[in-house]
Amino acid sequence: MDELDSAIVEHLQRDARQTNRELARKLGIAPSTCLERVRALRNRGVITGYHAAVDLRALNRPVQALLSVQVRPLSREVIEGFKTYAAGLPEVLSVFVVAGSEDFLVHVAVPDVDQLHSFLLDRFSKRREIVNFRSSVIYQHLSNPVTTPLGPAE
Amino acid sequence: MDELDSAIVEHLQRDARQTNRELARKLGIAPSTCLERVRALRNRGVITGYHAAVDLRALNRPVQALLSVQVRPLSREVIEGFKTYAAGLPEVLSVFVVAGSEDFLVHVAVPDVDQLHSFLLDRFSKRREIVNFRSSVIYQHLSNPVTTPLGPAE
DNA sequence: GTTGAAATAAGGCCACC
DNA sequence: GGTGGCCTTATTTCAAC
């Protein structure tokens, strides 16, 4: 994981579909070298995949929310069960299992606030393990396009 | 945005680097047709980009946390200012601007808990607009690989 | 909007440095 | 580990349906 690897990872996070030749040109190395590096990064598991990003509004899902969920009892079975259940719902973008006063944070995207309400009533309220939940509408969500390595003493 | 478009978007979310020919073959259409559809989805803004996903452990950032932040006064300037500040920090993966008791949720990834502590002290404690914050370590983070369109009455 | 074929460009392998 | 050349394969354009 040297400087060249970091640069490759950064460029591919910005645009995963640029050609190998273009990437090699930007980095000032031969295309075959570049290809070898990229392949090694993939095999070592540094790059885990290539994904298209989509506009949630175009998919009729402009309303986002974060749902804090508390479950009981705090057993492995209950945690795993709810986690798997939530991650499998089509409205759910991602599930955070967290320490602290809440046990889960569930990021959802739905067509409108009515369907957010319906989602909570139909998918959450009926679950017996949920002892408490709270929903926060998301006004805005900014994602950092690139994730770079951090040193021990940044 | 018909069935074919949805199928293309789903496949490209799973693997953005599959060749156009392969994608066309899976969908049972001609490569040129497929290319035209993909280009249209990109131009219409349905597909916003193609990004490589990276393993945070490989980047020496295995410790993740969600930081709830409350700022005051709740003016446009303060909100915008903190949002831009947080999004620009290298430790930050994404920033949620939320309704409810907290104003922001900041998703960070750092090398270890010591650096999480340092981050809070150096980057947050000194900001005058922050009146309260709370940090929750993330035990696990599951992301739904595909985001599909949702109908008005799912 | 979709297709097939032809031209252009890229990916991938191998011998060499 | 990096490079340059050759062959294979894919992307892209375009005329026709």
Automatic annotation (TrEMBL), chains A, B:
Gene3D superfamilies, alphabetized: 3.30.70.920, Winged helix-like DNA-binding domain superfamily/Winged helix DNA-binding domain
Pfam families referenced in this protein's UniProt entry, alphabetically: AsnC_trans_reg, HTH_24
GO cellular component: cytosol
GO BP of this protein: response to amino acid
Alphabetical keyword list: DNA-binding, Transcription, Transcription regulation
Gene Ontology molecular function, alphabetical: sequence-specific DNA binding
Domain HTH asnC-type: 1-62
InterPro entries the record matches: ArsR-like_HTH, AsnC-type_HTH_dom, Dimeric_a/b-barrel, Tscrpt_reg_AsnC-like, Tscrpt_reg_AsnC/Lrp_C, WH-like_DNA-bd_sf, WH_DNA-bd_sf
Top-rank taxon: Bacteria
PROSITE patterns, per the entry: HTH_ASNC_2 (PS50956)
Presence of keyword Transcription: yes
Protein name: Lrp/AsnC family transcriptional regulator
Organism field: Streptomyces sp. R35
